[in-house]
Each structure stands twice: as C-alpha cells, then as structure tokens.
Design goal:
The structure is a homotetramer of 249-residue chains. Chain A contains 7 helices and 11 strands. Chain A has 249 residues and is an alpha/beta fold. Chain A has a domain at 4-116 and 184-225: Rossmann fold. In chain A, the strands form 2 sheets. A 9-stranded mixed beta sheet of chain A has the order 2-1-3-4-11-10-9-6-7. In chain A, strands 5-8 form a two-stranded antiparallel sheet. In chain A, helix 3 (28-41) packs across helix 7 (212-225) and helix 5 packs across helix 6 (109-115). The longest helix of chain A has 14 residues, at 28-41. The first copy, chain A, is globular and about 70 Å long. The two termini of chain A are 34 Å apart. Chains in contact: A-B, A-C, A-D, B-C, B-D, C-D. Chains A and C meet through helix 6, strand 5 and strand 10 of A and helix 6, strand 5 and strand 10 of C. Chains A, B, C, D: Residues 5-225 form the ThuA-like domain. Chains A, B, C, D: It comes from Leifsonia williamsii. Chains A, B, C, D: Residues 236-249 have a biased composition (Polar residues).
Chain lengths: 249, 249, 249, 249
C-alpha cells in the first residue's frame, strides 16, 4: 500500500495571536492533527500542513493534485479564504479528493459551498467548557472501527441541534453535552467522486486533538475518505451513442 | 376528510397488576394515548383500544381491516402475543396500515419481525428516572410540525445507543438523558406499502402520555403514518409482458 | 385549506425564438405547466408565471415572499440568470419555500448552488426522441400517489446515469429509455427548511407537460413541497443557555 | 492481510436435475462463483462451497463461525431450507458476518427474515432472455470500483420494479432490460453488525457468473461485506451506570 498523502489545513490565527491558545497548541492545531495522524497511521500516511498565511493559503493546484485527503480547520478567518482557492478545492473534491471538515469549519466557505445549506447550529462555551460524550450509532462504519463507546472529552465547546446540513449519507456519531444538547457530531457525505467527513470535536481552547480517541477517529476518517483508484476527475456531461450501436459510446 | 381510524394496542398488564402504575394510568396506557389523540385531532380521529387479554388480542382481521394506524405498547408480555396475530399485523402493515411502536415496544415481536435486527439498546431506570430532552433534527418533517425544541420530559427511563435498528428512512428526534446518553428517539421506516414510526418516550412509571408535546408528536405520527388511498394490499410478484407489447401487462 | 401559491418560472427563450417549439408550447412551457397544475389541483392552487425577460426575472422579493412553491425550467440561458436572484431564491428555499426543478434545470445555477455537485449527466436526443418509461420505486411516497406504473412518454430526450447529485433523501422514480439507459428521474432533497423535488421528464421539443401523468406528478410534487406552517426563516446560529437554567433559552 | 474466508451456498437443485443447466454450470452455480472469486481475489480469498443436500445444508455452527462472508443462491427450494439454519445464519449476520444474496435469493427465507418485507418483484423470462445493462449510480462506492459503465449482460431473466425491499443504505447499481423495465440491481443494507449486499444478475439459464464484470462486482462485494475486526457478536441489551459514575459501565 502506498502511503496516504494528507494535507492538514488550518487558518492558524488563534495560535499566532493568542498566547493562551498557543500554549495549548504549540505546533498549531494543524501540527497537533498531523502528529496524531502519524501516531496512528505510521508509515501509511505522509502528512503535510498548510495555513491561511501561506501563498495561495498553501493550497496551490500542485499541492491539491498531490493530496489524497484534505483536513480543514478554520474559525475566525473564514472570510479571508479566497473564493478562487475555495473553488479549486471544490473541484478537487468533486474529482475524488477526500475532505474532512473539523469543528468550527462548519461555517467555512468550502463546507457551505459543498452542502448548500446554512450549516448553522446552536453553541455555548461556558468557562471551562462542557463535557462531551461522543456515541457511536453506526458500529459497522469504518470510521467507528476501534473507537470507545462513548468517547469522553472532559472539556469542549457545546454544539447543538438543529444543525442545518443536508441529510448525511451516514450518521456515525452523536454527541451529548453537560447542558443536555445533542449534536450529529460525525457525519459523511459524497459529492461528485469525493467523500466528505465532518467531525465536530476540536475547539481551539481545549486540547481535544491530543485525545487518543479523537486521533483514532481522524485516522479512520482519512482512510475512509481516501479516493478510489483512477484519475482526479469530476463527473462531466457526455453525449454518447446507445450501447451496442456500433458507434463509440 | 374522513376521520382516521386508529387502534391503540396495549398489553395492559402493568395497570392491572401494579396499583402504583394503575394510579398513573387509571384508564390504562392505551386509554391515555387514545385520549391524547382525541384531544389533538378532535373529529379527525376515531380511536379505539385493544389489549392482550381481548380475544385474538383485540386484533382480529376485521379490526385490522378497519384500522388506518395501529399504535403498539408492550413491555413484559411480548412473549404472550401469538405469532398468528403478529403475522396478521405484519401483512396489514405491508399492505399499507400505519404502525407506531412505542417505548418498550422496541422488543415486541412485530417490531423485530418488521426490522430484522435485535432492536436491543442500553437502558437505566434510577429512582425517580432521568430527565429526557427530545431534540428535533429534521424540522421540515411532518412529525415535527409544531413541536417545541426541545421537548422536556422531567422523568423517564433512560434509553441509549447503540440502538440496533436498520438505518431509518428519516431520523426526526434525538434524545439526551441526565446520565449523558443519547438515543435516536423518533425514527421512521417504510416496509411494503406501510409506514412505521418508532417513538421512545413513554415508560409505565411516568405520566409521559399526558405530556402535551408527546401527544402532539403522536398525533402528527398518526397523520403521517396513515395509508395512501387504495386497497389494503401487500406488494406481490408479477409476470407481465413488456409495456406496449400488445398483450395485457 | 388555503390555496397553494405557486410560481412557475421559465427562461422562455425557446418559445420566443424557435417557431417549431412555440407551436408545441403556444403559451410557453410555463403556461403549459401552470395549466396542468390548475387542471389537477383546481381551487387548491393559485399559479402565476414568471420568465427571464421580466424585471428581476419576475422573482422579486415580493413575489418570492408570496410563493409557497417555485417551479424552475431553464435550458440555454442559465448564465443569464443573475447571481443576485439566485441567492434570493436560495434564501427563500432555506427558509421553507418549496422548489421543483425540471428537466434541463439540472444545470441551472440554483440547482447546482443548492446541491453543491456538478449535476452533470449523460444525454442523447435522436430525431424523434426516445421512449421514456418512468417507474415508481417508492409507491408510498406522496409524490407517487395515483401515478400509473409505468408512465409511458412516447418521445423524450434521453437523460442517463451517472447523474452527479448528492444521495437524495427519497428516490421516487427511475426512468429507462429506448437506448437502454436508466436515470433517477424523480428525487427529493431537503435543504434548510425547504423541500426540493427534481423531475426530469419535459424537453422543449416534446409535449411532455401536456401528459396527464406528468401533470399528476407535478401536482403531487407541489403538494409535497409546500412549506410547513410558520414564518419564512432560514435556520440561524444561536447561543442559548442550557435548558432549565433559569435564563431565557 | 489474512485471506477472506468465504462460503458460497447454493441450493444446487437445478444443476443436479436439469442437464441443460448442468451444461451451463458443470461445477454448479456455487462452483462458478467460487472460481470467479479466486480468479479476481487470488490469495486474498479462501472460498469453500456448501449446498442444500449437505448435512445441516453445509452451514453448521462451525462453518459459519469460520466464515467472513456468505454468498447465497437459491430458487426452487427455498422452502426446504430449515428454519433452524436460517436463524443460525441470521445470528451470524447480526454478529458481523457479511451476507451476499444473489438473484432469485430475493425470495430466500434468510433475505425476507433480515429485511421484513415481501421482497417481491416483477419478472419475465422470454426465450433467449433479455439484455440487461447494469449502470453504476454510486461511482465512489467500493463495490463499484473498477466496474465498466454499463455492464452488458447479453441474456438474462428480467427483474423489474417495484422491488419490495426497505430503502437500502446504498444504491449502487440500477439495471435496465430490453423490455424497458428498471431494477435496483445492486443494493446494500446493514443489520446488527453485519453488512448485506444484494446483486440481482445471475439466472441459472445463462452463464452470468462467468462474466468478468459480474465476477468483479462479487469480489468487490466480498471485500466490502467482510466484518470489522472483533468477536462475532450480535448487539445486546445492557443496563450500565452513567459514564463517570464510579461504577463499572
């Protein structure tokens, strides 16, 4: 098996402007995620990172063409992501690149563009956060393989329903929070030839991406979202002759 | 509009053998449910009741043929329901009769027979119960119409995931409980020509079926599960000629 | 019941520039569709029409606010629809307005914007067209109520798979064509609070919108896509206190 | 990777009683299927076979416990399969064993028992059969990997809609036939911890199981249906303490 080529994208603003968050994520949120993937997947993965501040946000045509699965973390700078890059990412997803959108990425341009809805939700972040329990409701799904029932995250921002997304292809995880809310915290979609996984745990104020079970989920997600063999190519219109008509289809 | 013909079935064992439960449901669980439907639907519904102790459990061919939607509550006497009646009910569901299965009815013969899985789950019933919050995750679904976000049920038995059911057609409600569990508490299925709705709130120890919002959900469920026009007829095998072949299809 | 307020939108270019098509649809494609809805739904519908050439394409804020269900037919002028109007329509759909997209509308801006995919497909239109058979695969769905199995459309443009759409909420119809292709010709989606129905029969070169069964499907679709009671309001982010915390939620 | 342990079950009646069919399938339908799996999967599979005439139909507890994926072909002897064996197979599927049901197996006891519906359909088998085209409608699904669009099967029995099954988890293939019918010919379900794939091509009168593309689909299906790691264990009811309550969960 060839190693999976992963790019972890992070806007990277909190860590460079807020010392308290830099203390939690000294290598950035992207760094912590990439380390987690290497920890779980070992030689099966080659993980690079990219951030908003990089030229073309680090998401040039070359980088995307060399990426099997792209992870996306953003929060306070969604608007600063260029529409051109968003459309480039979308074309790669339609052509087969996997996309994993994390936590506050629910409001990213790329997520809203792929799904078409507002992607709005209910949230709350009291001092110290709330305990999140992540329950598996689809135990045969590859993304749930080897995951504890439930995952216990001691401190997290609360995300609650109604989460305005299209009906997912697969509902893998549902979370509850101390305050009583529930959230569809692990959901999958297919768009064009690309697989999309949204996973909500992971706020910048809490060390969620160091949690071994969260790392397991993201590693499973990367395996699941990896493209099928074949060229990176979005579905396209065609005007064929009937099958068996003698003319080339 | 002709009134919907509803039959509320209850095993009716708790209320006749346990005075504390009879005190909560003096007219039986079936009585409370039927009253709730009349309260919400008024002249749009004609609700009768039937119990395990009735001849043929009150579910003769005649009664089922005269029923648009059957509600099912059972708990400690699932085994006493005759296989013949279960198969009769199944045939009516396949032919178009709506079926609403309630709470501990998840372990009824008819539910397991229609779904094929174990229908097992996680449960807990501490002294005084736990608070259940019922969250709508599909606000455009007819069963969620006019329902508060969330429904607050002060005391309930806890039901938690993993709930071993097939992937539902529609996931309408997800509940959380004081102890942190989550549960897909409102789910729909189609089997043959029949619509099935499972709704989990409603333990015999708590007056859940008097809750106005629970009554609203059940009334919406009855409307939703009502059959399309046409004869009560399960899909059947056929051996037709091709369309337009001149022979009768 | 209050009458359903329907707006039938058509780009209206073929009928005004090609006499052969004007001969098939003397009142325009929009006119034929609106007549069909009136024929089936009678006083239950008030149908108006709008076209590309109208100011704001006939889709002002006032018109949309007064529309329960919008039908959309377009083909050669998708690019001429203003982005501002598309976004306005999208907001109304997210807020609850029903949307029915027809035939070549699969490539309309609004459909692609709501679904996120390329919406590409396979097509062929030989002289005289191909026979399309529309098969119901979900007989309990409200959109299939009273519809013949199959609908026989003697002449149509062929649309075939792969049709690049997200997995639909409900698959209602599958078509076959003389040349052997198949197509998911009747599919539903929910986006925000709005219901979307795509139905593929209906090319400008064939009198499909006069077909009684096609008219039945569109009338069923209008009933199904009509909004639930309540204000026209897209889901929005909120930051509530926990339930029962004493503070307003 | 350990080799997948596959058991191909066939009632094996046609081949032993009808010389014309024995001539098509000299090693039995089960033999042809097993050969196809070995051809495509090589050392990744160990395929054994079993038939109705074997003791316990060749499906003892020992055999099933040693089986990752069971393929099922039956037609005229469904009634002769013992209920005890059917329930044994069901328990293994609920516990994680993959199940692939083929063609006329739609009317097998195990398929109906897992799905709950009548599994009825429309069929026709004119002299020489009809051409079946199998179209992929979910190109990212693992079962569609490397499969031609469409698969052309020159002669087959026709199976048409309405096919009375629950809404599948995934719709992978739709077939058309010379007579114009369509059929959801490749569908997946999850029941308990087990994955189920139904694939309709494969009548005893035609050499369908020698078709390279059909063999590809079945090999893909075996890979997809293989269990996740872990013990063979159906979901079961549990009565845990709350998470973090200090008592064992």
């Amino acid at each position: 098996m060839t190693a999976l080529r992963v790019t972890v994208w992070n806007e990277g603003v909190h860590e460079t402007t807020q010392p308290d968050i830099a203390a939690i994520y000294p290598n950035g949120i992207h760094g912590a995620i990439a380390e987690g993937l290497r920890e779980v997947l070992g030689d099966d993965v080659v993980a690079r990172t990219a951030t908003l501040a990089d030229p073309e946000h680090g998401l040039s045509e070359e980088v995307l063409a060399d990426t099997d699965v792209l992870l996306w973390w953003g929060h306070i700078a969604h608007d600063q992501v260029s529409d051109e890059v968003v459309e480039r990412v979308r074309q790669h997803v339609l052509g087969g690149m996997g996309l994993i959108v994390l936590h506050s990425g629910h409001f990213s341009k790329i997520f809203i563009r792929m799904l078409g809805t507002t992607c709005s939700l209910r949230w709350r972040n009291p001092e110290g956060g709330e305990r999140e329990l992540v329950w598996t409701v689809n135990p045969t799904h590859p993304i749930a393989e080897g995951v504890e029932q439930p995952i216990v995250i001691e401190a997290q921002e609360m995300y609650g329903e109604f989460f305005d997304i299209p009906t997912p292809d697969d509902l893998v995880f549902i979370s509850s929070f101390t305050g009583g809310e529930v959230f569809r915290s692990g959901v999958t979609f297919t768009r064009g030839r690309g697989r999309i996984f949204y996973f909500s745990p992971g706020d910048q104020e809490y060390p969620v991406y160091f949690h071994p079970q969260v790392r397991r989920v993201l590693a499973n997600g990367v395996r699941w979202a990896a493209p099928s063999p074949g060229p990176r190519q979005a579905p396209a219109v065609s005007n064929p002759q009937p099958v068996g008509s003698g003319s080339p289809a």
